[in-house]
Each structure stands twice: as structure tokens, then as C-alpha cells.
Design brief:
The structure is a homodimer. In chain A, 59% of the residues lie in helices and 3% in strands. Chain A is an all-alpha fold. In chain A, helix 3 packs across helix 4. Chain A binds a DNA duplex through helix 4.
DNA sequence: GCTTGCCTTCGAGCGCGCTCGAATCTTTAG
DNA sequence: CTAAAGATTCGAGCGCGCTCGAAGGCAAGC
């Protein structure tokens, strides 16, 4: 929570992102919100929900990251649980976790509570990576804003 | 400056990164520091300075992003100016600017001041991208810390 | 019944950004 | 003088994470 409010201060009152359609990954803080959506969702809707392509969702499934149920016709049906996992996966991917690490992590999840120590380690590493990226991005932001200032900052040329 | 102090608060007093050898990209805020270094540098030293490989520096040159002078033997000699550009390039790359956009930008720089409007636009876009990434990373960080908390947070398994 | 459109599987292909190997030249140490 | 370390150019190769195309099944509207 502390982190959120701080970074919120950084990014608030700025070029409002205008998050239009279903961008769960960039908006949701409370996963329980997902229950409100009319799950289960087909692959297209689920993809739109997390901001990925249907292709990518099938790819994730093939890689063992999600296992949505199928309806009578063999179509994928993403439950609220599946959607929450997709949000998790997408956030981890967006923050630079590799497919390999993500696969390993999910594999551990599927193997019960005695894998928690290793999962914990993975999340510690992930946190360190994210913080490093935050540092790098902060420097890049400063550099960028320096340039904008130097150019006089005319947004429309 | 405002941004820096805020994010500094977020990341301060944490797992100290132990920035050992020459990590200009992650540390320098004032480019003038570069003059202190004994420029010009050979490709290996320059690479170490920005945290890239010599291969990558040659690749950047081939792509037209830097043009270091050559000594009598044809070896690359990166001047302080070149090093500052390398720091800039590296920060932009680390913050997700594509090679294509970077090439375009440098091309504009090489074409004088009347290209400033377009350069300005590129930097505005870049800033928006960085801020989006910061938002995504922040959510990912929260998710990660949530997991760590859930796992009881034992760092050593 | 037919068309439209979204769903399925499969394997191949691709764009990005390096990364490497080979052959050769230069500099430095002993 | 010799050997080792590090520089050069060139083009090929690679790992990641998708991304796409082909061939076909299923559902709904006219």
C-alpha cells in the first residue's frame, strides 16, 4: 500500500491513460472484482480482458501456464480463477519475468504447499528485478524530461 | 528532481544494489561527471562503463548510433561526448525505446536544430511509454509483495 | 441449406536485439 | 622473438515471445 500511494503521487494528475476497454492488468488492484465479470469467458473475451491476443492465451496454455475448462464444443472457458491467474501472469510478464521462470513458478504452484520456499525465492528475485527496473526507468524518465525541457517542450511540434 | 526524490523514497534503504564497476547508466545523474573519467576509452572500457558488451557497442556503431574516432591502429576511441551519448542510448534502450526509434532520433540529431520539433515529439512519446511502464511495474511490485507476504516472507527458503 | 464468423489444432515463421565465430592485425609482457 | 591479450571486420546464428496461416469444426442469421 505504501508503494502504491507514493508512485501514485508520481504519476497522478498527468496524461490520463484513458483506459478504455477491459484493461484488468493495468487497473485492478483487488482480484475479487473479477467475480463481477460474467465468467466464464471465451478466449476472445478473456484475451481482451487482460489485453493480450487469443493467440497468446492459447500459447500460454500450451506452455502449461493456464488450463481453462472446455465447453461441449471444445471451446475454452476461462473461469474467474483462470482470469485471476491470467492477470497474474500478465503482470509478471510485463514486469520482465521470463516465460521460463513463470513456467517454473506455475509448476511449483501445481505441486502444493511444500514448494512454497522455492516460490518465495522466485518472488524475492522478481521483486529485486522490478526494483532495479524502477530505478532504471526513473533515470530514463529524468533524461527524457531533461530533453523535453531543453527542446522547449512544445507537444505539437 | 521532484521525480527523483519521490522514487528515491520508494527504493531507498533497500537491498543495496552494490553497483561495483563503472555503472554509469544506473548511477550518473550529472553527465559532466564523465569528463572526470580518462576519456577517450577503448571499446572494452567504454562497454564496461555503460554496462554493455563490446559486441553491442560495435553493433550500435554499425547502426549509426555512435561514431567514435579511431586511433592510429584503427581502434575505437570513445570521447567523453561519445560516452555521454552511450549513456543516453543505454537509458533509452533500458526504458524500452526500440532500436528503430533510437536510430530515427539520432538521425534527427545529426540533422541540426530544425529537427527539434520531431525530436520533441519522440521524447513526449517516450515519456508516455515510460510512465505506462512505471504504472505496470508498480502493479507488478504490489502483486509480488503480496505473494511474498502470503508466503511468510522467508528469504532463505 | 448457406454464409458468416469465431472456435479448434498444428507447425512454421518472424522481428528484435543482440551474440558469436572466424580470420586477421596490434600491443604488451617476458 | 615469441606468445598472449585484445582489437578489427564480416556475416551468420540465436533465443525469446509471440504471431500467423492452413485446414477444419461449430453456432447463429437469412
Amino acid at each position: 500500500m505504501s508503494t502504491e500511494t507514493l508512485v501514485e503521487r508520481i504519476l497522478a494528475a498527468d496524461d490520463a491513460p484513458a483506459l478504455s476497454a477491459a484493461d484488468a492488468v493495468h487497473g485492478l488492484l483487488d482480484d475479487s472484482v473479477i467475480d463481477d465479470v460474467a465468467a466464464p469467458l471465451g478466449v476472445a473475451k478473456a484475451a481482451e480482458f487482460v489485453g493480450l491476443s487469443p493467440h497468446t492465451l492459447r500459447y500460454y496454455e500450451q506452455q502449461g501456464l493456464v488450463r481453462p475448462a472446455r465447453n461441449a464444443s471444445g471451446y475454452r472457458a476461462y473461469s474467474a480463477l483462470d482470469l485471476r491467474r491470467l492477470v497474474f501472469l500478465t503482470r509478471m510478464r510485463l514486469s520482465g519475468m521470463t516465460m521460463q521462470d513463470l513456467k517454473r513458478y506455475i509448476e511449483l504452484v501445481d505441486h502444493g504447499d511444500n514448494t512454497i520456499p522455492e516460490r518465495s525465492r522466485i518472488m524475492f528475485d522478481q521483486r529485486a528485478r522490478i526494483k532495479k527496473q524502477l530505478r532504471e526507468l526513473t533515470l530514463a524518465l529524468e533524461t527524457t524530461e531533461y530533453k523535453i525541457r531543453a527542446y522547449g517542450g512544445h507537444p505539437d511540434g
